């Protein structure tokens, strides 16, 4: 009987202590200078790729479990990597123009996690709100976290954000067609 009362007392004290001192969420700042965001856009007969810089970012954890995050991207940093010289400058300028991302009026894009679901050890399905050119749309993607590193791959339909230049939805000739979806491959360092 004494053991039972002692056991119940210890369980009650431990439970009360856990409630009084819950695990606090930890927000980890992303090291923007050490993190990369690579984009890849596709067109009939080829593709282009490059980088874009993070302006800021955080991931939120409850213990070791990912529970949130938010990011801001510097849209004026669009940089084509598969071209050089005049062709690179023309594509970079066109991507920054109103035909595409309109960076003069929309200098940043943002992503805010709205729901994070664990799908396995270190793996998560993330739902979030992605804002490009002042338009916010929901997006779902996978994130993997390993220590102070996180990776994600996103497929973005540009037409949802009023980026329709060269899209098949507006009657572009087939040989000039630019695919509506582009990829983002993100490697984060915290």
Automatic annotation (TrEMBL):
SUPFAM superfamilies: YceI-like. Gene3D superfamilies: Lipid/polyisoprenoid-binding, YceI-like. Keywords: Signal. It comes from the Bacteria. Residues 27-189 form the Lipid/polyisoprenoid-binding YceI-like domain. Residues 1-20 form the signal peptide. SMART domains: YceI. Pfam families: YceI. This is YceI family protein. It comes from Flagellimonas halotolerans.
């Amino acid at each position: 009987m004494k053991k039972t009362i002692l056991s119940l007392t210890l369980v009650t004290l431990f439970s009360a202590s856990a409630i009084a001192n819950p695990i606090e969420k930890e927000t980890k700042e992303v090291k923007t200078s050490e993190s990369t965001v690579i984009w890849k856009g596709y067109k009939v007969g080829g593709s282009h790729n490059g980088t874009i810089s993070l302006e800021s970012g955080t991931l939120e954890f409850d213990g070791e479990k990912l529970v949130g995050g938010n990011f801001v991207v510097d849209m004026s940093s669009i940089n084509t990597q598969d071209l050089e010289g005049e062709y690179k400058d023309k594509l970079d300028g066109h991507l920054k123009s109103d035909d595409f991302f309109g960076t003069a009026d929309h200098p940043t894009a943002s992503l805010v996690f709205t729901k994070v679901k664990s799908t396995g050890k270190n793996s998560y399905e993330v739902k979030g709100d992605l804002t490009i050119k002042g338009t916010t749309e929901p997006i779902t993607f996978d994130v993997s976290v390993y220590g102070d590193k996180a990776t994600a791959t996103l497929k973005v339909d540009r037409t949802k954000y009023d980026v329709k230049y060269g899209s098949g939805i507006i009657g572009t000739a087939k040989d000039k067609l630019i695919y509506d979806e582009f990829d983002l491959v993100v490697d984060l360092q915290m």
